[in-house]
Structure formats: C-alpha cells, structure tokens
Amino acid sequence: MNQGQRRAIKHVQLFTVGASILQTVNKYLVVGSKDGAVRFYDERFIVEAWFEHIKQGNVMSISFSTLEKRHCGDDLGNYGTNSNFECSDFIVATDKAKIIQLKSTDFELVPPAEDDDSFRQGEIILHGF
Question: Residue 1 CA to chain centroid, in angstroms?
C-alpha cells in the first residue's frame, strides 16, 4: 500500500436501516435512523443507549439541551441502573412533522412484556400539519 492511502481494517455494522442523521455529543456518536430510533455509541462503536420506541417516523434532526447532562438512573432513586450512560435531554424532529421531547432517563423505561404497540418513549411537544 502506498503512503497516504487508507484501507479498511474493521467493518462495524451499526444499524440495519439507513441513517438519517449522524452527530457527536459528549463522548457519543449519535445516530438517528430511518426506522425512527436514536442510538448512542461509544468510542468503540458499542451501543450505550437506544431509544427505539419513539414510533413517530424517520428521525430528521436531533437537538440537545444546554442543561447539565444527567445519568440515566437519576430518576430511578434506589432502583437506579449500573449503566454509565449520561446525556442531556433532547428533542427529535421527524419526517411526519412531529417534535418529540426525550429525557435521558427514558432509556430506562421498560416496555411491557407483551407486544404492546401503544408503548412509546418521549412526549410529543409539537405536531405539525
């Protein structure tokens, strides 16, 4: 290989559907995908947190609060998690003209055991026309 040329040394598949937005925040690579999920990867591309129950359309934009980041177990009191995930709360805009507010602690919400399609992460704060 000639000097200045690059070659792939490792291929990591982060998702199975297309990514609509990639950005970095703190120590994470944040991926908003066409399946409507938001995933946070660490520097080794290991998923640290995922918000897959938003269910409001393709993610088109992600904006983070300027407030201090929170550990995902902060709202759980004595039932806190041993996860190291922490980030500021954020909003997601979708291709269905919706803006959804998500808290970093929403990562710890557990969907019901049965396949309940009504379970959603986040709160719709704007629904366009």
Answer: 38
